[in-house]
Amino acid sequence: MHAVAITGTGVFTPEQSITNDELVAAFNAHVDRWNADHHAAIAAGEVAAMEPSSTEFIVKASGIERRYVMDRAGVLDPDRMFPKLTARPDEAPSIMAEMAVDAARKALARAGREPGAVEAVFCAASNHERAYPAIAVEIQALLGTSGFAFDMNVACSSATFGIQTAADMIRAGSIRSALVVSPEICSAHLEWRDRDCHFIFGDVATAVLLERDEGLDAPRFKVRSTRLATQFSNNIRNNDGFLRRTHDQMQDRRDMQFMQNGRKVFKEVLPLVSTHIAGHMAEEGVTAEDLRRIWLHQANKTMNDFIGRKVLGRDPAPGEQPNILQDYANTSSAGSIIAFSQHSDDLAPGDLGLICSFGAGYSVGSVIVERA
Ligand code: COA
Question: Model-level pTM?
Answer without folding.
Answer: 0.95
